[in-house]
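dude i think i finally got it to work??
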Amino acid sequence: MTHQAHASPDGEEAGNTDHEAYERLISLLDAHGARYRLIDHQAEGRTEVVSQYRGHPAAHAAKCLVVMVKTGKRTKRYFLAVVPGDARVDLQGLKDIAQGTYVSFASTGTAEALSGSISGTILPFSFHPDLELIVDPALLEHSEIFFNAARLDRSLALNTADYADHLHRARAQILPITTKEA
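look at this
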């Protein structure tokens, strides 16, 4: 089923980055016949709260965080770490995977520039060549994953098998990168 994107209720302009990321996401999903549902809700970017709005456990949400790993004095790699909503990224583990010397969350400006979305709406897809996609396998254990669709007021429920197909096409890494929240 093909879904058409609509302007946001607040009259958001087409030229803004979030709108472009949303359009690119929908185009990608439609091009590959992905099964998904759009869910409109109150504007919210916090995983625990928006999961309640969408009516699913936080573990089914794709929490997307941009992480910077220094791999040398002047070199660094950026990862889009996608984890279940009830978990947190194991920064030390990600540093080890990247064979880095230092790890931290990317600055908000860098994360938004690389992801093409504002914080709280980052997609579990990378459209930037400098943003490596890495996904925790626990996210793939449910029939659908949920995430804000580059907008605070709209989410997507995506068939997990279709997301896994995308990960394969994108040559994303699927590795354990989480620790459970305390």
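The helical segments are 17-31, 47-54, 91-97, 108-115, 160-170.
im so relieved honestly
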